[in-house]
Design goal:
alpha+beta, 8-stranded mixed β-sheet, 10 strands
Length: 238
């Protein structure tokens, strides 16, 4: 039986790739990855961007997604890459795309993509966990015990069944500060497979500290390459 092929000319090739940093703020932290994908595909159409499309009977815009934050988590550092059929000025794309997205999904920066895959540059994240109304001494005690441990395990339910993860090993640095709403844990976490989530860090802290620690409000502050001093860099630079 002969294989069917789509009629018409092949899709235009990618002439330029743009990397977009965006934020999930307010109620939009509850949007899922699929929710954002639908919103972005509508936004690039509204913005009139010359998107490249895949081949086949059901072509899709050439958009690459990388390491999205979990549903329910806010972020100041989410990234996607757009494939375009002709070069455009990234500075002109940022405001147009931002206006086309729902409030709370906010474009922070747009740059032309450098060599290499975007996902390869996302080596670590810096997280903020706000423990509203929690006792600061209890949070500090839990973090000290966590950092002193060689291994702290939690269980994540995967599609294939439960999986035990070591939360301690990928945490490169962490500290506690007092914020206006309560103690704030700031942690730098190296990306692993699977990547440790803020909720799992919370569960790990309750294992070694007070079990009544409230669920924190988590925000990703940065995501990118690891520097020599353990800092998280900007994947849009260099």
């Amino acid at each position: 039986m002969a294989r069917r092929t789509p009629e018409g000319p092949p899709p235009e090739p990618v002439a330029q790739r743009l990397r977009v940093r965006y934020a999930k703020r307010g109620r939009m932290r509850f949007s899922s990855t699929r929710d954002f994908q639908r919103a972005l595909e509508r936004a690039v159409r509204r913005a009139g961007l010359p998107m490249a499309f895949s081949a086949g009977f059901h072509p899709h815009p050439r958009i690459s997604y990388a390491n999205a934050a979990p549903t329910g988590v806010a972020s100041e550092a989410e990234y996607v890459e757009l494939g375009l059929t002709r070069p455009v000025d990234p500075a002109e794309v940022a405001p147009v795309l931002d206006r086309a997205l729902p409030d709370g999904l906010d474009v922070v920066a747009v740059t032309e993509a450098h060599e290499g895959a975007l996902a390869d540059r996302l080596e670590a994240s810096r997280w903020s966990l706000v423990f509203r109304g929690a006792d600061g001494a209890g949070v500090r005690s839990a973090l000290r015990a966590f950092l002193a441990a060689d291994r702290v395990e939690v269980t994540r339910m995967m599609k294939q069944g439960p999986r035990v993860l070591d939360v301690r090993e990928p945490v490169l640095a962490a500290q506690v500060d007092e914020g206006p709403d309560g103690p704030v844990v700031t942690a730098t976490v190296r990306h692993t497979t699977p990547t440790v989530r803020p909720e799992e860090l919370w569960h790990a802290l309750t294992q070694v500290g007070p079990q009544d620690l409230p669920r924190p409000l988590a925000t990703r502050l940065a995501q990118g390459p690891l520097g020599g001093s353990g800092d998280v860099g900007d994947p849009l630079q260099g």
